[in-house]
């Protein structure tokens, strides 16, 4: 997925570019910015202003989402540092673990076992939390962008697993 | 000279005159219209004092059309020509209507949307809905004493693009200018939130006649932020009537029913359901066309048993929305119930059990949606008091593009806040390929065949390259109305193709114009007059907006030269507007366009200014914390 601007989102939201940010403050700024920029606030303005409002409001929504989500926030920091490489290679161990996750999800689906899926979802959430903590330490304490890059890549796999579990629960009507 | 009639800068536009705007709930069983009067949203009643209008349209052989209460009481006598719950057919094909066979109508498959065969001919659901909207528009104009500037019309959050487009078409046909299609649960949250000055996470559980919607919102000082929305566009209160109907016909072995009998029994089923809200047991008794009597006793326990699967079906979407918003049941501060069907006691118990809290029911579940729509309409036409409200809504269904193998690649996922824009790069499949076809789809399923098709378009003139070398960037932009435009661009040559998605099931502009001008002798002249009036309104609006902007920040943000250039263009357009000549349509449009063009830089500076203001205000605040 490509995002549309090279706006520095930390700047847009008045934040110091760090991984650990105050999410409440981010939420507040988001609402304040939209209160100015949202197209609904410009319905009686000129066409040109309405167009700018649409563009600005779009960028604010995009930036808010990028900063709120840990993996895209980390990616923003890596990009800002100019350290984005082509995707680093995932370890064989990590890929094996991925396959085990997938099999567990498939088994639970086949057995229509909602409780098993919910347990997997909990375990995965915990795994994601750990990954995010490690990412924070890489970026904010050690400025180790290479390690962070790899962890972001892994985190994306976990996020995909999470969507898979949610979709499976959805299909089971639960 | 004409120029002197222009008001002084800053005096004309800023305090707008109060514009008449309404909110309309176009419901499956009932519809109603509301407006903000002296700061409060109120439902507008008919001459008999009734706010609700049954969404029933009765077509008679002599061309007479009854809408509402009279039509509803005729439903059993003339079922084929009395259209009930037309909302279920909006933007749908026969295949989409699950119980088409048991309905008393004669459906005709036609491209995109079914038609209904009646005594006055084949009718599109759009035309039937327009009859309901016309009655509400006239009611509002009489009650408010003037022509309406615009209307906000509510739709189920889970309506797809085709259903939304059909609703918009119906409004146009009824002579309404649509300010916005607003999601019903969001409208309810606005009415509820402003009324109670609520803060925090609120859910809206909205079981209407034909649709189920569930939305989660965060309410913060006048900002209504939708976090997730889900639902089932083919599940509603009507299905609970149908369950009773099925029980009756099965247990009493009633077969070979006429359409009149079916309609009669469905009405009896609905009344029995309503009685069971207060009573533990109810008796159903009526006589059929062949004079045989139907008589049965239905207990509330039996009704609960019969409708358990239906009620259970609503909690799937509830759980999904909670997962999408990454929230637990405990995070929810309140649950607002919307829709007449939420009066059923066993539904209230089920909701209470799920959320561990009593649902909120202090606003009339039949009116709350229209009231919220009226508040949003008032804000969108720029009336005083409207600036306290800001609504940040989401798209309910993912938008994607078909890729090899008939799979949908999601470009904008569901529950993303709008406006939104995303892009994705695609490449060629064959060596030397110079064209690409794009198929835009909506829905959550992986297979394109299980999603709804929105549009197809081609990009041609791609320079011949080896397979996989071309870079084609496809950009999706969804505006604040939830309308999608898609463009594709070859990155090396900059070759571009672009469309605004309008689903193929909607009526074409020609069809609408045809319907509008039917019966008008001088349609062509009429069309030109309308175009001129629209151009004049546009010009007037731009003049007002520009003058107000100049007065507000012209001195700060413009050089002397820029200031003069804009003013001279303002004068030019104003003079043209006052001349008011029918021949001036083209020059009026052109002059409006020029004023738009010369104010572009100014508009951009104003936007930057307001963003910076919001941000610097914020930074001072964070230092204080």
UniProtKB/TrEMBL annotation, chain A:
Residue ranges of every copy of the J domain listed in the record: 8-82
Coiled-coil ranges per UniProt: none
One of the GO BP terms on file: [2Fe-2S] cluster assembly
KW Chaperone (keyword) present: yes
GO CC annotation terms, alphabetical: iron-sulfur cluster transfer complex
Record keywords: Chaperone
Family per record: Belongs to the HscB family.
Protein name, as recorded: Co-chaperone protein HscB
GO molecular function terms listed in the Swiss-Prot or TrEMBL record: ATPase activator activity; protein-folding chaperone binding
Record CDD domains: DnaJ
Pfam families listed in its UniProt record: HSCB_C
Signal peptide: none
Organism whose genome encodes this protein: mine drainage metagenome
SUPFAM superfamilies documented for this protein: Chaperone J-domain, HSC20 (HSCB), C-terminal oligomerisation domain
NCBIfam families noted in UniProt: hscB (TIGR00714)
UniProt cross-references to Gene3D superfamilies, sorted A to Z: DnaJ domain, HscB, C-terminal domain
Key word ATP-binding present: no
Automatic annotation (TrEMBL), chain B:
Keyword annotations from UniProtKB, A to Z: ATP-binding, Chaperone, Nucleotide-binding
Biological processes per GO annotation: iron-sulfur cluster assembly
Keyword field contains Zinc-finger: no
CDD domains assigned: ASKHA_NBD_HSP70_HscA
Pfam families with a match to the protein in the record: HSP70 (PF00012)
Molecular functions (GO terms): ATP binding; ATP hydrolysis activity; ATP-dependent protein folding chaperone; unfolded protein binding
Family: Belongs to the heat shock protein 70 family.
Record-given protein name: Chaperone protein HscA
Organism for this UniProt entry: mine drainage metagenome
């Amino acid at each position: 997925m490509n995002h549309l601007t090279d706006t520095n989102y930390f700047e847009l939201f008045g934040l110091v570019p760090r991984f650990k940010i105050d999410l409440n403050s981010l939420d507040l700024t988001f609402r304040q910015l939209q209160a100015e920029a949202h197209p609904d606030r410009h319905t009686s303005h000129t066409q040109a202003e309405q167009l700018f409002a649409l563009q600005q409001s779009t960028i604010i929504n995009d930036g808010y989402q990028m900063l709120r989500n840990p993996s895209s926030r980390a990616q923003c920091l890596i990009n800002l540092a100019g350290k984005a490489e082509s995707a680093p290679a995932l370890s064989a161990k990590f890929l094996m673990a991925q396959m085990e996750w997938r099999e567990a999800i498939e088994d639970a689906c086949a057995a229509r076992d909602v409780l098993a899926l919910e347990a997997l979802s909990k375990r995965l959430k915990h795994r994601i939390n750990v990954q995010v903590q490690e990412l924070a330490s890489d970026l904010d304490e050690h400025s180790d962008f290479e390690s962070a890059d790899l962890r972001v890549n892994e985190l994306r796999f976990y996020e995909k697993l999470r969507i898979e579990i949610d979709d499976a629960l959805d299909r089971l009507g639960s | 000279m004409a120029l002197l009639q222009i008001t002084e800068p800053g005096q004309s536009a800023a305090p707008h005159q109060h514009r008449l705007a309404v909110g309309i709930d176009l419901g499956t069983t009932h519809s109603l219209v509301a407006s903000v009067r002296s700061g409060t949203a109120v439902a507008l009643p008919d001459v008999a004092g009734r706010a609700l209008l049954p969404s029933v349209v009765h077509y008679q052989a002599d061309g007479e059309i009854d809408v509402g209460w009279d039509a509803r009481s005729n439903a059993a006598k003339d079922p084929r020509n009395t259209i009930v719950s037309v909302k279920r057919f909006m933007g749908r094909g026969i295949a989409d209507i699950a119980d088409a066979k048991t309905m008393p109508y004669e459906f005709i498959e036609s491209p995109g949307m079914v038609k209904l065969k009646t005594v006055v001919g084949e009718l599109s659901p759009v035309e039937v809905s327009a009859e309901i909207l016309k009655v509400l528009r006239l009611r509002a104009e009489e009650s408010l004493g003037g022509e309406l500037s615009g209307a906000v019309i509510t739709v189920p959050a889970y309506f797809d693009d085709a259903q939304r487009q059909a609703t918009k078409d119906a409004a146009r046909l009824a002579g309404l200018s649509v300010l916005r299609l607003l999601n019903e649960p969001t409208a309810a949250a606005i009415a509820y939130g402003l009324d109670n000055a609520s803060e925090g996470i609120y859910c809206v559980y909205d079981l209407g006649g034909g649709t189920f919607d569930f939305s989660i919102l965060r309410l913060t000082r006048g900002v209504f932020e939708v976090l997730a929305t889900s639902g089932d566009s083919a599940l509603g209160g009507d299905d609970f009537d149908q369950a009773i109907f099925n029980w009756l016909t099965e247990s009493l072995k009633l077969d070979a029913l006429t359409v009149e009998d079916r309609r009669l029994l469905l009405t009896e089923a609905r009344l029995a359901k309503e009685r069971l809200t207060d009573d533990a047991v109810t008796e159903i008794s009526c006589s059929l066309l062949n004079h045989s009597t139907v008589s049965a006793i239905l207990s509330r326990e039996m009704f609960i048993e019969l409708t358990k699967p239906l009620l259970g079906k609503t909690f799937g979407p509830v759980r999904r929305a909670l997962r999408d918003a990454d929230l637990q049941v405990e995070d929810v501060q309140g649950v607002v119930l919307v829709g007449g069907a939420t009066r059923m006691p066993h539904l209230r118990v089920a909701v209470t059990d799920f959320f561990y809290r009593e649902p909120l029911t202090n606003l009339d579940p039949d009116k709350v949606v229209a009231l919220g729509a009226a508040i949003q309409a008032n804000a969108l036409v720029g009336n005083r008091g409207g600036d306290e409200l800001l609504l940040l809504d989401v798209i309910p269904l993912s938008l994607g593009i078909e890729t090899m193998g008939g799979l949908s690649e999601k470009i904008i996922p569901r529950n993303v806040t709008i406006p939104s824009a995303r892009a994705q790069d695609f490449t060629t499949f064959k060596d030397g390929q110079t064209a690409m076809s794009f198929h835009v789809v909506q829905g959550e399923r992986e297979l394109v065949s299980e999603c709804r098709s929105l549009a197809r378009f081609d990009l041609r003139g791609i320079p011949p390259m080896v397979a996989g070398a071309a870079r084609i960037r496809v950009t999706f932009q969804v505006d604040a109305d939830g309308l999608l435009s898609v463009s594709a661009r070859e990155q090396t040559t900059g070759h571009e193709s672009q469309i605004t998605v309008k689903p193929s099931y909607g009526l074409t502009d020609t069809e609408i114009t045809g319907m509008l001008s039917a019966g008008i002798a001088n349609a062509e002249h009429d069309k030109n007059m309308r175009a001129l009036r629209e151009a004049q309104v546009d010009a007037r609006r731009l003049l007002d907006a520009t003058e107000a902007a100049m007065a507000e920040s012209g001195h700060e943000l413009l050089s002397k030269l820029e200031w003069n250039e804009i003013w001279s263009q303002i004068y030019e357009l104003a003079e043209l507007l006052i001349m008011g000549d029918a021949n001036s349509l083209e020059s009026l449009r052109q002059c409006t366009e020029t004023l738009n063009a010369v104010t572009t830089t100014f508009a951009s500076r104003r936007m930057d200014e307001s963003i910076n203001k919001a941000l610097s205000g914020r930074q001072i605040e964070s230092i204080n914390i």
